[in-house]
Design a protein that fits this description.
Blueprint: H1 2-20, E1 55-57, E2 60-62, E3 70-76, E4 82-92, E5 95-98, E6 113-116, E7 131-140, E8 154-158, H2 190-194
Antiparallel strand pairs: 1-2, 3-4, 3-6, 4-5, 5-8, 6-7, 7-8
């Protein structure tokens, strides 16, 4: 056992030195918040400190355009008010990834709308940036059971494609065939260099 202890500790120390030795920029590129494509997904995400904060979620300020892929999932009530009870992620311009338990509310009613680009649902501030799109179809994982926590994933197909803008952009998804978890110490550094 002790023969593995020292190499393990040494590996952890070297990894920590490597991570701590990295440099990060404090300021994003000038046009960073005007992105509407996935070409710059490898860059770090920053919030735009020049814009006023319009909402707070769990104590974290949210700036317009900061969470471009966030989708608010809503239920339109008989009073025309929309209750946003779930969230999701825009993964293509026509699909939102969410939880299967969001397929119905407490009254067993299905959601009917998705709101994109709005960081403060409680006010009209920034509403000109928002896109309200009807839900065409809600597809739960076939093995999802409400009484269990497994397979709690679903896709929402939008009635029409979202319009990419400074405030709405699909999420950056991993596209390479390997994710590197089992190849971190491989002699082939191609994957490690991309993580």
């Amino acid at each position: 056992m002790s023969q593995y202890f020292l190499p393990g500790v040494l590996s952890c120390v070297l990894l920590a030195i490597g991570v701590l030795g990295q440099t990060f920029v404090d300021d994003p590129p000038p046009d960073y918040f005007k992105r509407s494509s996935l070409d710059d997904c490898v860059q770090r995400f920053h919030y735009n400190t020049s814009q006023p904060f319009t909402s707070v979620h769990n104590g974290d300020p949210v700036a317009p355009g900061e969470y471009k892929a966030f989708a608010s999932i809503g239920w339109t009530r008989s009073t025309s008010r929309v209750d946003y009870l779930c969230g999701g992620t825009l993964i293509t311009l026509s699909y939102v990834l969410t939880a299967a338990h969001c397929s119905v509310d407490g009254e067993n009613k299905r959601p009917d709308t998705v709101r994109l680009g709005d960081v403060d649902l409680s006010t009209n501030v920034g509403d000109q940036n928002a896109q309200q799109i009807s839900i065409k179809r809600f597809v739960r994982h076939p093995e999802y059971k409400a009484a269990r926590a497994y397979h709690d994933i679903a896709l929402i197909e939008l009635e029409k494609a979202a319009d990419p803008s400074d405030f709405v952009c699909r999420a950056c998804l991993w596209t390479l065939p390997d994710i590197g978890y089992d190849r971190l110490w491989d002699s082939d550094r191609q994957i490690l260099d991309r993580i």
